[in-house]
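@channel sequence for tomorrow's demo:
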Amino acid sequence: MKEVLTDYGSIEASIITDFAKEYRVTFPPSYIELLSKHNGVHFVQNDFDFYDIDDSLQTAAIGFCCFGDVGGDSIENSQDHDVYGYENIIVFGFHGNGDYICFDYRQDPKTDNPPVVLMHHDEYIEDEQGQYKMAIAKIADSFDEFIDMLYRYVI
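structure tokens (generated this afternoon):
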């Protein structure tokens, strides 16, 4: 377990699973367990490395969305991406520059173990239909792998 810096306390797991049902997805059990204990968690170890869309190695940080109106970035208000977003992408956190950290259910909407991706809020690619969509970079194959990647960046 990573060291918790701040959170908004605990919440009923049913709040998390009800949200997932609304979007017709199943969250990873470890995500439900974590957020039910630490709603809107910010870890001391909140940095991660990933390969961006141009194959460059990047470092980013995550602040988890919270459930409910408790003062942080709520997950409920973070799912509208206009015409530039994707179906079956669920935002669960933000990078400090405004990019989205998401569960990617596009390949398998029924899985409870989706990959974790970073969706750029200001970088776009053209899809197969000629529509511009936010660019996506894969971070991890699963939520557990993502959590294991987190570290504390020290200058």
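heads up for whoever presents: The mean pLDDT is 94.
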